């Protein structure tokens, strides 16, 4: 008899869940799933019930025999699972909005994952992911953790270095970059191959191939003539022609925060005083989404979900699970332990890179050294990430201060300290590791 899988989704009440369910439905012929446990915390109960009912309708419409379970019990969800998908947000959107606003107060980019906003999110998330991993080790020791929880690279590095859980970190940015290239050349995504190297939300496409032909230059010429590339959550600022020419590779949408910090900051300030920060905008989109989800005649993933930044989330997640489950040994871009893949980074850090995916997880393909033009930024951000993991695990103020101080978007130790103190004050209830 073919094996059927149990999937646990931590943060199951998320508005993204229909995206994930849609992915499992599409993959059903190759990836038979018997049970999906959508788990959330007490505060997320109402959302969980709404989204869970929609998930049930979606599965029914697809004529599939998948049992959807809704639970507030993490142990029940994880116990015996084959895959644990983590997509939770500690403190909800209100915490995200605070993360975006604190840095802005000091003239620093305020973003959910990049810079001090992502740092605050990491500190809140680390104790929670450690607790989830304890349960996985105890109740589902052979399960794979598919981590989508942001900041995905930092959280994955925490799990890889501080737990025994088998984990792969995931992000939808690389697949969106592939999709962009496919759209530019009007071909299917499968014909495009990008040699990725970097960190989560700081990944470069070093070389781009179409049917085996190197089309990097052709693509960059198109990028600078205005066929712009971004994601719904990042302001669509046009890349500078000379920047792209000198870079000679495809930046990811998040690089704008580093390469165009001043313009991005201006944009954020403008947005914060008009429609609100991205978190505030998303809060409204979510309200609308949940109104739609409540409709008992809705039984598909609604197109309105595309207003969120998570495009192709389920494509990435379900392809990864499928390739692990079916030992496909295909190439996907995920977050893994460096292990000498990028020679300019320490071995024990998480990187985002092309890997062969099979039943043993993700084996990275060699990158070697990266050119100096991207090396410095990558190393600086990685050092910040390492210190953030350490600060988040140990609850150490001085490590946290160093992490923020060396972040390329933070101008001085003085500003770092002010931001850190605000973060710690405003997140007290979520930072047990810093108490005492
Ligand atoms: C992109 C990122 C994700 C992030 C999402 C936020 O897809 O890759 O890591 O979670 O955007 O989108 P939102 O709609 O919440 O701003």
From TrEMBL:
CDD domains: GH4_P_beta_glucosidase. Binds 1 NAD(+) per subunit. Substrate binds at residues 96, 150. GO terms for molecular function: hydrolase activity, hydrolyzing O-glycosyl compounds; metal ion binding; oxidoreductase activity, acting on the CH-OH group of donors, NAD or NADP as acceptor. SUPFAM superfamilies: LDH C-terminal domain-like, NAD(P)-binding Rossmann-fold domains. The record marks 112 as: Increases basicity of active site Tyr. Residues 196-410 form the Glycosyl hydrolase family 4 C-terminal domain. Belongs to the glycosyl hydrolase 4 family. This is 6-phospho-beta-glucosidase. It comes from Tepidanaerobacter syntrophicus. The lineage of its organism: Bacteria, Bacillati, Bacillota, Clostridia, Thermosediminibacterales.
